[in-house]
Amino acid sequence: MAQKPSLPKGVRDFGPEQMTKRNYLLDTIKSVFKKYGFMPIETPAMENLSTLTGKYGDEGDQLLFKILNSGDFLAKSEVSDFEAGAKELSKKITEKGLKYDLTVPFARFVVMNQNDIAFPFKRYQIQPVWRADRPQKGRYREFYQCDADVVGTDSLVCEAELMAMVGEVFKKLNLEDYRVSISSRKVLEGLADVIGASDQFNAFCVVLDKLDKIGLDKMLEEMKAIGISTSGLERLKAILNIDEPNRDKIETLRKVFMGSEAGIKGLEELESTFNYMESLGASDQKLHFDLTLARGLSYYTGIIYEVKPTSVQMGTISAGGRYDNLTGVFGLPDVSGVGISFGIDRIHDVLEELNLFPVHQLDSTKVLITNFDENSLNHALGLSHRLRNNGINCEVFPESAKMKKQMSYANKKNIPYVIIVGSEEIETDIYTLKDMTEGEQYKKPLLELIDFLVKKA
Asked: Which CATH superfamily hosts domain 363-456?
């Protein structure tokens, strides 16, 4: 009995229609990356576990897909390793893992190639990553990330350009319903300073980041559980209630953060970023200075940001931030970096739900040329050569068939035009062109036909 084919949970196939949409998405984003001077690189699907572990926090480490060592992977293990549990055993049977994101492998790439690249180094990277997460809507175990990073400069012009790029990407995709939350790890340090939570900073950030999911009261309960005082929680509540435009909020917080060097520095960096955006002509209408934004990844050290859609139930579709110390763990200290990641799968789902994919992008073949017999086939092949040389995507129906079958094929593939090649067309060099969308038919000489189709391509 034949085995029934299946896929692991959390991964997907993509047929021609989905790939056409994904390529439209990727080409749009790439065009913006290139416009701002970013260059492409790729890194392998697998990395050494020593490269990956300890970079994403405990939760991230648990979500790494580990690869069993080749051959007899149990050869170096002993009974005591089994008795010690999975964590100890895994050290003996696995040394590699699938990459969890693109940023850590990028940092490793920079360190290994530091003598061959020009700093500041601006790169973009579009590849799949893997996380052993529980699959659900908008969350997959294999998904593509689409990153742009700059390393080798601490200039806030980079942050401003990344924010400008977000605006350009979503404008090109005709997506208007989104909001960009922006803050800074330094602002969070200032917040922790003024409520007496400096000693519990990491735990404070983890709980603060839950506000959207669990609500204010539950969040304050959890804050109390990690040891933050009642007076500190009252102050936190008052600060989180500040509801002012971005620049006004910065001015208000300057007074609140008096005495916190980190907090004041974070506010100054946000203000500079907003000023550079203004100079770039980038709109800040979608930008919201959000004090509760506490990106979970442990390597962010400066400004952080994330983008969420506002009219579709979906998580973060783009995010990133400044990471001053990431390359240091690979032996290259004092190299500052900043980047952004676009979540292709989630953006795809948002555009799908809002019906924002342009219909013309889904037509890979513009013209089908009919085939009724050997004579018309040879003529059709010559005609296809002429059309392709003029940049027109076309195909010849590969076998002689009745008109109905060929028209049905064109309809199923959403091919907008069919050129009918019969004995009359071969004799006169005047072709019947059928517009499959409008149902109209035209007769055109070859050069006029090519000119018409070039304009429509």
From this structure: Anticodon-binding domain (3.40.50.800)
